[in-house]
Amino acid sequence: MAVLPKFYLKNLNLQAYEVWSKTSSRLVFTSIPRVMVEGFLKEYMKVNDVVGTELHTIGNRFTGLLSDLLVKHKALKGYFGDKQPDVGLGSSSHHDHQFISLCKEAYVVDGRNIQSSVMPRDKYPKPLIFHEGRLAFLPTPLETLCMFLWLPFVIVLVIFRILFGICLPYLLAILYGLLSGVQLRFQNCFPWPKPQHKNGVLYVCMHITLLDPFFLSTALCKPLTAVTYNLSKMFEIIAPFRTIGLTRDRKQDGETM
């Protein structure tokens, strides 16, 4: 879910947002599963409430199946009853026309003039400071097809990179990484600075995965101890260095560190 704000903000329509920002109370009806948009809408778009399609659950887990696809104009009638919303904002689709026709004032978003409607980054309702890089592209049908076609080759490549990264000496692992397509750039690493204190050196990485400490360990050509969150057993096994998992409990993690 952490990557979704990146895509939502990128597809935000500038003219539609100008209308949106002038309203005081905001309610969203969407056929997209509510759990996929509610966090973004409330955090970035300051929405008061979200009515969307619900996903089927078993216990506390989603099955991925839709409980019932939301029909916007029916949901609006069920929410407001006989009252009419002041402003309706929707696309040019037939379903949205039925939806916004129930409002006192209606605006239709024209998706044809894409260039002039792109929201500049400096006008985002909230700065996009972080996005999760595990899904670095918008999963359009073509992009998704390319991903699945590339997936078998990636699995083989990853297995060889892991094996060579674990088994080979650091300098040979760097050479193999370069030959297999990994782009490495070292800056101020050679010669390696000697720590002035005997307690060691703390390196701060930007991501919660083990990739950063792995590349840092390879660049420094020495084993490190990685302290991170969300550490799975598989990564503990294949990591070529010692790993310590944190629990997000301040007292317990403080004692661990």
UniProtKB/TrEMBL annotation:
Pfam families (alphabetical): HAD_RAM2_N
- Localization: Membrane
* Entry annotated with the keyword Transmembrane helix: yes
Its main localization is membrane
GO process terms (BP) = cutin biosynthetic process; phospholipid biosynthetic process
Q: Carries keyword Iron-sulfur?
A: no
Gene Ontology MF: a single term: glycerol-3-phosphate 2-O-acyltransferase activity
Q: Name the keywords, alphabetized.
A: Acyltransferase, Lipid biosynthesis, Lipid metabolism, Membrane, Phospholipid biosynthesis, Phospholipid metabolism, Transferase, Transmembrane, Transmembrane helix
Q: What InterPro entries does the annotation carry?
A: HAD_RAM2/GPAT1-8 (IPR056462)
GO cellular component terms, alphabetically, are: membrane
What residue ranges are annotated as transmembrane? 147-179, 200-220
Using the record's annotation, list all stretches that form the Glycerol-3-phosphate acyltransferase RAM2/GPAT1-8 HAD-like domain: 2-109
Highest taxon in the source lineage: Eukaryota
Family affiliation: Belongs to the GPAT/DAPAT family.
Q: Which PANTHER family match?
A: ANCIENT UBIQUITOUS PROTEIN, GLYCEROL-3-PHOSPHATE ACYLTRANSFERASE 1
Which protein, by its recorded name, is this?
A: Glycerol-3-phosphate acyltransferase 1
